[in-house]
Structure formats: C-alpha cells, structure tokens
Amino acid sequence: MCKYTGSVPELPEVEALALDLKGRLTDRPITRVDLAAFSALKTFDPPLQALHGTLVEDVTRHGKFLDITASGLHLIVHLARAGWIRWRDDVPKLPARPNSKNPLAARVVLDEDPQTDGGSGLTPGLDITEAGTKKSLAIYVVRDPLEVEGIARLGPDPLDESFTIEVLDQILQDAGRAQIKGVLRHQGTIAGIGNAYSDELLHAARMSPFKPANSLSDAELQTLYDAIRNVLGDAVARSRGLAASELKGEKKSNLAVHGRTGEKCPVCGDTVREVSFADSSLQYCATCQTGGKPLADRRLSRLLK
C-alpha cells in the first residue's frame, strides 16, 4: 500500500503524483467510482457513474489539480490542504459508504489485470481521502478540464517554456504594490506555487515576502526568475520517480525555511522566523531576506498587549 501525504501538495508533488499514477493506471479499466463524501463532488453532468467501464488514457496535472483522463472524460481532483491519494493493491469488496468519521472521500476501483496482478484475484484501486474537519477537497467529472473554474482561471505554469522573464515582469507590474509572496502564490497569477514554495523561492532570491511586486530592479527580477525556475525545477527533479510514500519526506527534508521556525538558516545560520496569519504562516530568514530586520508579526503583537 502506498500513501500520498504531507503538507499541502504543490506543483512538484502533484507532478510526481501524476507521473506515478500514470504508470499505475494507464490502460487500466475503471470498474466503478464510489463516493463517500458527497460534498467533495462539485459537478453533476456527466454523472460520476459515467466513469464506470472507462479506460484510463493518461494522468496529468494543471497547476495543483490532478487530471485522470478516461475514455475522453476527466476525473479532476484538487487535494486542497489535507487531501491525499492512497494506492491499494486490494480494495474492500463492498462499495465505500458515507461515514463522517472516515477520511475517505472517494474510491476508484480498477478491474483486475491478470498480466499485471498475476491472476491474484486482487482488486486494486485508489482511495482519495481528506484528514481533519475542514473539508476542502474537490472532485470534478468533466468533458473538458477548462469546465473546472479553478483550472480555467489558472495563470501560466512557471516551468513551462512560455513562462519567460518578460511574462514574470508583466505579472509583477500588473500586481502593483501588492506583497510579492501573495502574488506568487495566487493561482490565477501563477499556477502551482503555494505557501511552502513561495517561502522557499523568496529565500533563494534573498527577497522579503512583503516586498512590493512592482518594485524590483532588473537584477532582482532576474534573481527571482532564476529562483522560480531552479527551486521548482530541482524539486520536480528530486520528486520524479519516487514512490508515493517518499514524497512527504523528500519535500520536508529539502525545505530551507518553510516549516522550520526556530531552526538555523542553512545559508547564514541565523534563526528562521515566522509571521502568523489567521489561517496560515510564512517563514523567512531576516539576515538573508530583510537586511537583518525582523518582520512584524501582527498576530503575536496583539497577543502580547
């Protein structure tokens, strides 16, 4: 059994997940899809049952959306904050049932393939699950990925050849005085970068997360562009080909500042600091990114009053 888990999946992890699932699913028939969390399914036409009896043709991604293509239909999954996918060599014989205490959102059941499964009689499949009480995982069945509003609104993919430094410059200029971290992680501006990798690439670029987007010099623009391509490109290269169970550890072990509050910066040795928000936080190195000046943590300041 393999499990895809860890912090919020971003471009590198979803890329690796798509590649791994492509190897497992391509040319496999889908017997059925069981829905255990009705709120997770965001579409009704085509119905979920339209996937029954289809043949998986490909598995790709759009930003942080996973796309399983089967006989011309698209099963789209957005894992949100706490979702993951578990490969099962043998799924239970009975269909999955709704259960508020069970993290299972949906199950994709595959036909047994005697050549692949050795005639074992096992029924392989995927469990799509979501931990916690805040349910944000989303599942779509569509004829065209662009029918999913989140995909239709995606900005350019930062690892695509069309994502040039001129494209990045225009994005930043259009954002005006908005804080650069928020611009980088906004999916309608640039696809696939989330909280973790925006921290990482800004650290690599030695740039404050609060820096106004349109204030970069030509040299800073080049540095940021290189950081985006290198940080994400290296993460994709490290993740590609890994077993699903290794994705979480690989990501965490290679993060320089994100999730490392109180630890030493691997570049300068200063203490990694944090700024907290209502439902998230960012991490940074003051020496590397803000000229040694700590950023104000307004939530902490209010608690101290």
TrEMBL record:
Keywords of this entry: DNA damage, DNA repair, DNA-binding, Glycosidase, Hydrolase, Lyase, Metal-binding, Multifunctional enzyme, Zinc, Zinc-finger
Record keyword Isomerase present: no
Stretches assigned to the Formamidopyrimidine-DNA glycosylase catalytic domain: 9-100
Required co-factors: Zn(2+)
Database matches in Gene3D superfamilies: 1.10.8.50, MutM-like, N-terminal
Highest taxon of source: Bacteria
Name of the protein this chain belongs to: Fpg/Nei family DNA glycosylase
The organism of origin for this protein: Nocardioides bigeumensis
